[in-house]
Every structure is written in C-alpha cells, then in structure tokens.
Amino acid sequence: MFRKEIKVLDCTVRDGGLMNNWQFTDDFVKDVYNACVASGVDYMEIGYKSSEKAFSRDEVGAWKFCEEKDLRRIVGDNNTSLKLAAMADIGRIEPEDILPAEDSLLDMIRVAAYVHQTDKAIWLAEHCLDKGYEVTINLMAVSTVIERDLEEALIDLSKSRVPTIYLVDSFGSMYCEQIEDLVDKYQKFMPGKTLGVHMHNNMQLAFSNTITGIIKGCNMLDSTFLGIGRGAGNCPTEVLLSFLKNPKFKIKPILKVIQEHLIPMQKDIDWGYFMPYMITGALNQHPRSALKWMAGDKKDNYVAFYEQMTDKNDL
Amino acid sequence: MFRKEIKVLDCTVRDGGLMNNWQFTDDFVKDVYNACVASGVDYMEIGYKSSEKAFSRDEVGAWKFCEEKDLRRIVGDNNTSLKLAAMADIGRIEPEDILPAEDSLLDMIRVAAYVHQTDKAIWLAEHCLDKGYEVTINLMAVSTVIERDLEEALIDLSKSRVPTIYLVDSFGSMYCEQIEDLVDKYQKFMPGKTLGVHMHNNMQLAFSNTITGIIKGCNMLDSTFLGIGRGAGNCPTEVLLSFLKNPKFKIKPILKVIQEHLIPMQKDIDWGYFMPYMITGALNQHPRSALKWMAGDKKDNYVAFYEQMTDKNDL
Predict the structure, then answer these.
(1) Are B207 and A205 in contact (CB under 8 A)?
(2) Mean of the pLDDT values across residues A38-64?
(3) Opening angle at CA B130, ends B126 and B132, nearest 5
(4) Which residues on chain B are in Cβ contact (under 8 Å) with A300?
(5) Strand (E) positions, A200-267?
(6) Which of B242, B278, B301 is facing A238, going by the closest CB pair?
(7) How close is the nearest chain B Cα to the Cα of A194, in Å?
(8) B211 touches chain A (CB under 8 A)
(9) Across chain A, what does the average pLDDT equal?
(10) What is the CATH number that goes with domain A7-265?
C-alpha cells in the first residue's frame, strides 16, 4: 500500500506513558526518537502539553508537560525530517502554556476532545494554528456517541480552520464495517479535511482497522512500537511500516528498540491482548475498569472480571 | 454478526499441539473439550489422524494419532452437540487407518494439502466421505501459488464431492483485500461449495481476516483458545465468539480455561505476536525459519533475525 500523502505518527512515548505516568528514562526516549528518524516515521508524539496546575511532578514524568528544556535534552535542535508533536487535553492545559511555534521544538499540537467538548477543542486548536503549529483534533470515544450529536460536532469541525480530524476508537470496540461507515460519515460532513485514525487493540483489530482507514482514504496513521499504549495498546508501528510500501520506511531501527527496551518493559507494564481489555472492548466500554482490574491482585481471574462486567449476563 | 449457517471450529489441541508435539495433559484436553461444549462451539479439532509409521510415539503425544481409546478417555461417548474433527495430512496417513465413521467418535476429517497435492487430497477426502464422515479440504500456503495453478486446483475441487473447502493463510501474510480477492475467486471457481477460513496471526490480522471471510460469505471459521497455534498462532476463539451475535455462544467457559491453562502455558510455549513470526508473515515466508530462531539461544535478537531473512535488504 503506497500513497504519498500517508503520514505515520508514532505515539509510543505519549500513549505508552499512560501506563507508567511517563516515567521513561532519557535513554529510552532518545532511542525511540532516533529510531523514528532512522525508520522514516513522519511525526513523533513525544508527550502531552499540560498545565503544571493540573498534574504533580511527583506523580508524572517530564513527557506529561513537554517543556522545551526537556525536549532539547533529547532531540537537540531536531535537525531531522522528523516532526515532533504533543497532545493537549481539553481542560488540562492553559492556552498561555503553549509557546509560539517559532520558539518551540514542537511542530504539531493534537487536541484530544470528547464530542461534547468540540467547541472548546476548535477554540484551542485554532489558537495553536494562530501560534504557528500544525494542528489536529482527535475526537475520542465516538463509539458511544449518538448519531445526531456526532453529526453536529462534525459540522462544527467542518466549519473550523482545523485541517486534520482523527477518528479515534478509544475503547477498541470497532471492526472494519464500523470504521468504513464512520469514515464515510466524516468525509460526507467534513469534505476537504485530512482524516487520521487512532485505533486501540483490545480485540486485536488496531492494525486491521488502520488498514481499513487507509483503504478509505485516511492519511494520518497513529501507531506505537510493539503496540505499547493504554490497556490493550495500539497499532504496532513495525507492522504498519512493513505493510506500507513506501521505500522510505525501514523497520530495523524499530526492531532494535523493541528488543532493547520494549521486551524488557513488558515485565513491568501489562499492555496488550489481556482478557480484561478484550472484554471491555467487546462490550464497548471505557478500559478504566480493566485497567483497575489489571492493577489489582486478581488480575488473572478473568472469569471474575467477566462476571463483574456483565453482571453475570453472557457476552 | 449473526448468520445461522456460521459454524465455529476450535482447533486449540490440533494446532496448539504443533508447538509442543501434542504433549498435553488429559486435564487440559478435557477442559478444552468441556469448554467447547459449554460455549456453543460447533466442532472441536482434537488432533491429527496420522500413521504410526510416519511418527514415533516417543516424540509426539496421543493427539497426533487420535486413536479411539484416547478419544474415549476424554469425551466418553460424546453425547453432546459438539462434533469432533481430526486433520489428516496428505502422505502421513494410510487410508486403512481411518475407521468407518460409525465405529469412530470422530465426526469430521479435514484433509490438509498443498495445491500440488490436490488430486491426492480429493481422493483421500472422498474416501473419508464414503466412510461416512463430514469432510473438508484445507488448501494450504496459497499466498505463494501462481494464479494458474490455484485456478486449476479450484476447478478440480469444484468437480469433487467434497462439500467444504478452506482458504488457509498458512504464512499469516495476507490482509483484507487479498482475502476478499481469494474468496471471490473460490466462489467463482467452486460455486455451491461451503467455504471456510483458517487464518494465522503473524501480523495481528487473524481475527480481522476471519471477519472479512464472514462478510464475504465464508461459514466455517477456525479459531483457538487465546490464539494458541504454530508460531504466531490463530484467530482467538474468545474474541471470535464475542463478535458473533449468535446467543448460543458463551465466552465464560473459555475464559476459565485460558486463566487456568493457557496463561501458565505461555511460560513454556512462545506462540503469539513475536517479531520473528511477524517478519516471516510480512515477507510471505513459511514460519519455519522463525520457529527455528525462537527455539535458539538468540531468540530475542530480532535485528539479527531480520538481517538473516532479508539478506540485509530492507523490509
């Protein structure tokens, strides 16, 4: 599959950090950065832009804030073709925390919002556009939004100046036909916008749903090394790049980081295809109950989790 | 997704046994059997029918042979709605090793064959039909077969009395558009045959390719508990059943076996999404080189495996 407009955004550090409060070593973040550069990845999302008022430094690492001094420690002047992105959550960032783009190593701000926050998301996204950034809005948890509310949000987004909108399968609950229908809807209501896909792997469908997005014309593709990310994790970058036929993509640099960092990390962080995440995905539920279960002392008791989630009804 | 013609065939013991020479405890096989019955699975493939001349009992367990006394020890008279299947490989079975169906606990024989063995497969399959079994032919490794040879095989199969033919992604190298094209071809060349899908998970596409098969009209679906199987393994039964909307399917009995048996088994058997299996899948290669690598002392050196497979060219 080759289409020159396709861009790959690796969010290993940003999404993976949801599992360890961004307590990554500098070595890890540097190795991910260097591998992204060497493998031809287009964007690296290195963390969140967040307000210091919203989170404590005692609990979360540097990549929850993405201050310039921290970025510079990893990427220097970033004299590479790799662009750097950070995510901003509505309500967890003050507009004044965002520097003018010319004063920042960041190239892109991605605004994450629920459908009911669309107006605020557009305001913040256009604020970032005006500061000189590339900007996207990532509309989360659409699998539980009623049709009319979603369409209203899409109409508002279509009128905004924001060029790129993401279809996000927050709960990892969707399969190909649902992706097809939603991309059709996004294209119908937002003609001319670039579309992106951010898929979760609860039912082992993150990569295939990303492929469906590609086939339907989505050009911004999110992925992470070995699929690391919240809960079941994401579309794996290494398999996505091996599928895309653009010769600029190489997987060897990523394999090196996987064997040196991600495999050892699996001993401490339970991301991937675990039954609690599969169950919340199949039930179209937020993964928070599965995350809580996996952090408890009965994490391998899948039957008990299933009974809790279904109230003893059958799935 | 509900279609009353859909049948699920669980091949946990048969395909999983490729990873441990079928050295399963009776407890495990019984628990899989009981879970298949309780979860509404239609067929359980419990092993291979093989000739004692082809394999040594010192190396392989009972489920490489599926003798009646071994079957009976697990399933008694099998007074359930679950049907039992065994696979027969061309060249590794003598026709006289197959009892008349009325004298066997097996209900179905699945003949596995490469395209160049189609004539032999039809002969053996019709021999089993004449002995009273349900029969399928599973045409393997079609991702490396040239168009003309495949079409010739399909024409021969279409003329046979064998009612069910499987599309098998032996190398885990295919994605949805290839599955769609092949199912179209199978339907065009073999009108009236029931089609099945047996997918491998090298690129995390086994479940999604099975869904594509369902959408295209395939009605026999192979899967295994927690995806256990050779190399990267298979479509997981638990996620397949949670997707199919037939109320007869329950996943709780399978979750119990996963937590009691499959999770502990992961300590000894490396099936699933490991980089060597991903690489052979992406390269459309037989997994044997990956299996050999994973059995060696450098199994986590993915870069070295990648270099060996690509002769230092890039993927």
Answers:
(1) yes
(2) 96
(3) 120
(4) 259, 263
(5) 220-223
(6) B278
(7) 23
(8) yes
(9) 96
(10) 3.20.20.70
A306 and B251 within 8 Å at the Cβ level: the answer is: yes
Chain B residues whose CB is inside 8 A of the A176 CB are 176, 208, 211-212, 215
Percent of chain A with pLDDT over 70: 99
Q: Per-residue pLDDT tens for B24-44?
A: 999 999 999 999 999 999 999
Residue B76 reports pLDDT greater than 70: yes
Domain ranges of chain A: 7-265, 275-310
pTM: 0.97
| Residue A189's pLDDT band (cuts 50, 70, 90) | very high
Size of interface A-B (CB pairs under 8 A): 122
Is the CB of residue B49 less than 8 Å from the CB of residue B65? Answer: yes
| Per-residue CA distances from A313 to A310, B143, B252, B263 (Å) | 5, 41, 10, 24
**Are A34 and A79 contacting, i.e. CB atoms less than 8 angstroms apart?**
no
What is the four-CA torsion angle of B208, B210, B211, B217, rounded to 10 degrees?
150
In this predicted model, what pLDDT tens digit does every residue of A60-89 receive, in sequence order?
999 999 999 999 999 999 999 999 999 999
The partner residue sitting opposite A303, judged by closest CB among B175, B242, B256, is: B256
* Token digits of residue A292: 């809580």
The two tokens of residue B181 are 């094209």
Q: Which ipTM score applies to this complex?
A: 0.96
Q: Does B299 touch chain A (CB under 8 A)?
A: no
